[in-house]
Amino acid sequence: MTEEILFQIKALYRDDFRIRGYRFGNGEDSVCIMGSMRGNEYQQIYACALMIDKLKRLEEKGRISKNRSVLVIPCANPYSVNTKKRFWTVDNTDINRMFPGYSLGETTQRIAGGIFDEIKKYKYGVQFASFYMPGYFVPHIRMMKTGRENIELAKQFGLPYVVLHHPRPFDTATLNYNWQIWNTDAFSIYTTSTGNIDKKSAEQACDAILNFMSKQEIISFRSYEGYISRVVESKDFITIRAEKAGFFESCVSAGGKVTKDNLLAVIKDPYTLRVHQEIYSPQSGIVAFVHNETLAYQNTAVIKLIEDEDML
Amino acid sequence: MPNLKDAIIEVVSAEMPVDERLMIKKHRIIGTDKTIGKRICIVTGIHGDELEGQFVCYEVSRRIHENAGALKGIVDIYPAMNPIGIDSVTRGIPAFDLDMNRIFPGNSDGDMNEYVASEIIKDCRGADLCIDIHASNIFLTEVPQIRINELHKESLIPLAKQANMDFIWIHGNNTVLKSTFAYSLNSIQVPTLVVEMGVGMRITKEYGIQLADGIFSLMNYLEMWTDSNMNKKTPIISYDQDGTDVIYLNAPVSGVYVKERDHGSIVHRGDKIGNIIDPLGGKILFEVTAPDDGWLFTSREYPIVDAGSLVGRILKKEVYEK
């Protein structure tokens, strides 16, 4: 393993801004794994740290294939993590809305450009991503439908779901989208959490990446077979919204199975605890997403289900 | 004095968790002459830290009431598209950390913010003109200007010329901008002009008066306002679809920026624009100079800079003089 500084900005009063990478193996730029780009993505840093630990041990055992190299970048935005700000500390811009970046542009464009120059050459790109809504997710691979997405490759991670998503205008400035445009096979992995560490789903995600790398013969690893992934379009998720605002209490967990008419959640009046809304499952299926904040605003998508009529 | 009909109307509201409703309101003023069925929307406060439009809303309303007989048609004034952002000195939508100008045209079945955005678009649909007033941000000061996406230039340039602004900047199309309020309205044939002027968190009264003059000039052009005494500047126009008319000055180092030249200055190659200083070491880290002759139409207001921070924009002399 070699540790290197991939990008650096000298600051006035703070320590320098540094993006650190951990490289394993030699030769062809095979896989790049990107962790946190926002200041609240602790789970994404943790998952990368697990990957670094696993890859280090594999490398020590000589299990990384000849002429294959893997780069892990646990955090592309330490300044925001250290100040507990989600976006860039000065102007609140989002590095993951600045790709492919611009080396002569504004600060976050330069950061995105500096990262992208290093990682656009990789054959496969994997990003531990987070959702813009606060909540818990069933672990899955998410891909944007750019016309270049390779669904069969995505299935090789062996996670339960591969979710396909039509890019919205602002998605065109994300890392995942630009990786695809620059001919990298790009995958976003959503683990269960973002702002707190969920060890189980981080382990599952790391195993999935090792599984994938093993199938591409980048590492030699007796991988678990995982799941036969089900491919779902994000527009086919059943979204359940809060009809009234108030305290939100979930009765289910991400990844849990529910049948039609199961109680999913309750919304209560914050002053009287009177029940505003009992949310029942309209279909049988898997809980793909659960809101995880105490407060729910009116019309908030609090639960998303993946329909499964064959659920027993 | 003829009587105007006016009312404060709730455009959309949504329930917040604890004993509060989010409300977007507008002030509708209906002219006494009902034969002209035209409507203009004056919108501001999509970014909660941009306050220049607040004075403009007040000033337009004040002048209409002062000269009620001159109004034909309907004026809708929306001073606070993001009311909780304005109230909490927050650019985006508080609690969601979301840029409101990236969620249009919204979604009536979406979350609270998407729903609000869709209702706002519904309310503005059918208007003959919309003016979306911004104030740069807290970092930069801008001369009064209108920005136009090249896709909508044919319909918008004739209108923009009436708006008494110093500058019209026609820029290239960018996919990300499809989520803006102005793009969404222009796409449904509501001509929408985006005004940028002044600086965030402040009101520059002189610019407010200039834009108010421009709004009455536009209303006159649309035959909604009868007044022969119109202020109308001839703007500088940059057809900058390929992005070559403007020189961007980005800080090469982090430090504290102290400007030497104000926005609106004519500068020559080599002129000093400002210094990036190091207060800890007592040194100048970098002298920012003009790379070419031109017009400094943007200057940095907020002193702290990182490497890459924008400290100014210069419109090239050949464009400025043309």
Q: Please, could you describe this protein's structure?
A:
The complex is a heterodimer of chains A (312) and B (322). Helix content of chain A is 21%, strand content 32%. Chain A has 312 residues and is α/β, with parallel strands linked by helices. The longest helix of chain A has 19 residues, at 42-60. The mean pLDDT of chain A is 94. In chain A, α1 crosses α6 (199-215). Chain A folds into two domains: 2-232, Aminopeptidase, CATH 3.40.630; 237-307, Beta Barrel (OB fold (Dihydrolipoamide Acetyltransferase, E2P)), CATH 2.40.50.100. In chain A, α4 links the parallel β7 and β8. By secondary structure, chain B is of the alpha/beta class. Chain B folds into two domains: 5-240, Aminopeptidase (3-Layer(aba) Sandwich); 246-321, OB fold (Dihydrolipoamide Acetyltransferase, E2P), CATH 2.40.50. Chain B has seven helices and 17 strands. In chain B, strands 1, 2, 3, 4, 5, 6, 7, 8, 9, 10, 12, 15 and 17 form a 13-stranded mixed beta sheet that branches. In chain B, strands 14-13-11-16 form a four-stranded antiparallel beta sheet, with no helix packed on it. Chain B is globular. The chains are: A alpha/beta (312), B alpha/beta (322).
